[in-house]
Amino acid sequence: MNIKRITIIVPTDNLDGFERCLRAAGVPGMTIDNVKGFGEHVNYFSGDLLRTNVRIEVYLGEDRCKDVSETIRRFASETHTSAGILVIDSIDRLIDLNTGKDVLAANL
């Protein structure tokens, strides 16, 4: 079984809702970073036109990825999230730095 990374980039004010959504979906952990960028929605009140967002990353076994990504998409639709993207990547290898061993997809 393969490991997948789901990356969600949404406006900062949507973070709490997405965090609750992921916890309810049984996601075992997440990483959250503050990021800046521009795309469809530009911040005209900022000198550099960049908008502040959050990037949420989760790692899952391939068997759970479809259900969790659909839960995220449905949550975004139901809450009328005005901007954001969802990306799914394949991960070649994930290593637990505490043990030095490969993380198995079945454990995610």
What features would you describe in this structure?
This protein has 2 helices and 6 strands, in the order E-H-E-E-H-E-E-E. It is an alpha+beta fold and 108 residues long. The chain has one domain: Alpha-Beta Plaits (2-Layer Sandwich), CATH 3.30.70.120. The strands form 2 sheets. It has a 4-stranded antiparallel beta sheet with strand order 2-3-1-4. The longest helix has 17 residues. It starts with a strand and ends in a 6-residue tail after the last strand.
Give a brief description.
The chain has 108 residues and is an alpha+beta fold.
Question: Which secondary structure elements does this structure contain, and how are they paired or packed?
Answer:
Layout: E1 3-11, H1 15-24, E2 31-37, E3 51-61, H2 62-78, E4 85-91, E5 95-96, E6 101-102
Antiparallel strand pairs: 1-3, 1-4, 2-3, 5-6
Question: What attributes does this structure have?
Answer:
two-stranded antiparallel ribbon, 108 residues, four-stranded antiparallel sheet, Alpha-Beta Plaits, 25% helix, 2 helices, 35% strand, globular, alpha+beta
SS elements, strand count? 6
Largest β sheet strand count, sense and barrel closure: 4 strands, antiparallel
Could you say how many structural domains there are in total? 1
Distance between the termini: 11 Å
Q: What's the tally of helices?
A: 2
Give the proportion of residues in helices.
25-40%
CATH class, named Alpha Beta
